[in-house]
Amino acid sequence: MKEYDCLVIGAGSAGMVAAGQAAAMGAKTAITEKWKLGGDCPNRACVPTKALLHSAKLYSQFQQAEKYGLKAENVSFDWTKVQEWKDKVVAERVSSESEANLKEQGVDLFWGQTSFQSDTEVKVGEEILKAKKIIICAGSQPAVFPIEGLDSIDFITSNEAVDLKNLPKSIIIVGAGAVGIEFSQIFSRFGVDVTVIEAAPHVIPAADKETAEALGGYLSNLGIKFYINAKVQKFEKDGNLKKAIVDLGEGQTQEFRAEEVLMATGRRPDFDGMNIEASGVQTEKRGIVVDEYLKTSKDHIYAAGDITGVMQFTHMATYQAIHAAY
Question: Which of 234, 245, 306, 312 is most deeply buried (CB count within 10 A of its CB)?
Answer without folding.
Answer: 306
